[in-house]
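[Automated response] Your request has been received and processed.

Submitted sequence:
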Amino acid sequence: MKLSVRGLTAFVAAAVMASAAAATAQTNDSTTTVPFSFTVGTKTLPPDTYRISRLPNHNDVVQISGLRHGVIVLSQPEGPDRRDPSPRLVFHRYGDSYFLREIRMPGNAGLTLPVSRPERDAAEKLASKAAPEVVVVATRQQ
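Generated structure:
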């Protein structure tokens, strides 16, 4: 009987620690509904509601996951935005193509995504060589 009580106690302790870690990790997660298809790196994601979260112990790695699609991307951490601390996604738009370029997490943590080859190709296709239109989608903390 002592063995099963010890096993149960160890299981409960592990479950409590795992749920505490999960709750801590979720405090900086955010969700947003993106009403258009967009490209992150080389992957195009469809319109959907997405959860944006940093991977634990990796401040520069972000997971963007929807109902059926997702991507993990390497980013460059950025300082706080003194003009607008609200959580948001910032896209560059070239014609009908949207490219995710910046993520602002709750708490004003900024992450910049590198220019991808598909975005460079889209920029080159523009006859006017004009700067991209910047599109902002607000996010909400989970």
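Summary generated for your ticket: The two ends are 42 Å apart (CA to CA). The first strand starts at residue 30 and ends at 34.
If you did not submit this request, please reply to this message.
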